[in-house]
Amino acid sequence: MSNAITINPANGETVAEYERIAISKAKEKIAMAREAYASWKETSFAERSQLMHALADLFDANKEEYARLATTEMGKTIVQARKEIEKCAWVCRFYADNAESFLGKEVVDTDAARSYVTFQPMGVILAVMPWNFPFYQVIRFAAPALMAGNTGVLKHASNVQGSAFALEVAFIKAGFPAGVFTNLNINAGNVKDVIEDKNIVAVTLTGSDPAGRSVASVAGANLKKTVLELGGSDAYVVLDDADLEEATDLATFGRLQNNGQTCIAAKRFVVLDAIYDKFLELFTKKMREAKMGDPMDESTYYGPMARLDLRDEIHEQVTKTIAQGGRLILGGKIPEGTGAYYPATILVDVHPGMEAFDNELFGPVASVIRAKDENEAIALANNSQFGLGSGVITSDRERGEKVALQLEAGSCFVNKLVTSDPRLPFGGIKNSGYGRELSAYGIREFVNIKSIWVD
Ligand code: NAP
Predict the structure, then answer these.
(1) What are the pLDDT digits (tens) for 312-331?
(2) With respect to CATH, is domain 4-230+432-454 assigned 2.30.30.50?
(3) Contact assessment for residue 366 and residue 269, using Cβ atoms and an 8 Å cutoff
């Protein structure tokens, strides 16, 4: 069994090696999580809330350390890594303060003397998580799941095991009892055995759609519930009344944040014909000027991709799109030197049937697509296997809202980059997955919605 090795994508140096545990050991840890559940589910919301607040305080206190770890393991800029840790604290506090009201008893008027709905915990939840937000993705699952009274076991991405263990330690330091949150350093091949373990009651996966299909099929065969947060290739529709400076600022940051590796990132820009040429000119200028470099440097706009294989994969997708008739306007060449760097890249003449239109490009590559009018823009935006987070850029809010309501996605933001905000549900439709995280909807995914009737 090969160990999990973390490599700094900025320089190719090995950071650490983490010994994988065998499936027998993983099953022991899952049994401990089941044992911990027996007493954890009996704790009050007030007790859980106190611990969740302590965890939030730990994120604040250790922000720099955690941020540097994330940057070292997967290459995001240090500035954005700090923001990720701040968001972890926010989500912990949000559920610490709101879980009880989200899961409060709902009285229903029936023929019974008393009837109501309760939201009870389910047991041990398995979370399979990606590397792109190594702290936040885990907290987005764990804060609501634990506040609901479940316990959690984590199978984190192999390249961010340092973050996975740092999280496990943080839960313990915050005072959570042993077994309430556990990192299983197993390889992806052992996930099937874990799902089949009788102590696992449900699974959540954030990652690519092949991983989602694989996990969902095993969980389905075992009749275990899943929530899937998968990829996206959503469109940002730029209407002809958009302020071009603002639109291109948003487009540049949207495509390059997290080094282009965000599920809800702007990937396809569908721009109305009347402003297409000006948009492309200004966007190209800003993408060219964005500084690629050492992610630890405070002035870096975007760093390397998370792994060399991912960098090579996106280059292949760019090459394939060009072979299919797409035109390269900027970037598109692997730079010399060490590190998994890939430059800001723009493709045009991208149509349905081409790689960059049909599939997710998880890196700093934008497709700029011309639409003759608003209706065609909406049709092009919706012509996608994905439906995670779309955007509309316009100076007319009402018009933007009308377009937003017609876009097929789990979220649609007008004049703002799609973001996950704990107050709003987050998730996708189509091949972007199903189920929701965050808000009251998210915490109700992993509970038994139970009816009580007293005659
Ligand atoms: P990935 O390759 O699917 O990996 C995600 C996790 O699944 C990792 O822990 C990975 O383990 C594991 N895994 C991979 N194949 C598996 C399999 N067949 N069975 C069980 N587990 C498996 O995705 P990634 O490259 O890390 O992340 C990028 C993808 O995640 C993109 O598509 C992105 O859009 C999506 N994403 C979605 C959201 C959302 O909220 N919707 C958020 C972030 C990212 P190993 O690391 O050991 O392979």
Answers:
(1) 999 999 999 999 999 999 99
(2) no
(3) yes
Helix (H, G, I), strand (E, B) or coil at 373: coil
Q: Mark whether 263 is an active-site residue.
A: yes
CA distance 205 to 158: 14
What's the gap in Å between 79 CA and the centre of ligand 1? 24
Does residue 1 have a pLDDT over 80?
Answer: no
Full-model pTM: 0.98
Domain boundaries, the chain: 4-230+432-454, 235-414
Catalytic residue among 84, 88, 92, 263: 263
- Copy the structure tokens of residue 50: 């106190």
Which residue's C-alpha comes closest to atom 34 of ligand 1?
Answer: 231
Asked whether the domain spanning 235-414 has the same topology as the one spanning 4-230+432-454, the reply is no
Tens of pLDDT, residue by residue over 407-432, are 999 999 999 999 999 999 999 999 99
Cβ of 191 below 6 Å from ligand 1: yes
CATH node for 235-414? 3.40.309.10
Residues, the chain = 455
Question: Is 100 among the residues known to form the active site?
Answer: no
CA angle, 412 then 413 then 414, to 5°: 125
Q: How far is CA 131 from CA 75, 208, 256, in A?
A: 10, 11, 17
Could you tell me the distance, in angstroms and rounded to a whole number, from the CA of residue 211 to the centre of ligand 1? 6
Q: Label residue 154 by pLDDT band (50, 70, 90).
A: very high
Res 54: pLDDT: 99
- Which of helix, strand or coil describes residue 302? strand
> Which residue's CA lies nearest to atom 20 of ligand 1?
188
Which residue's CA is minimally distant from atom 47 of ligand 1? 158
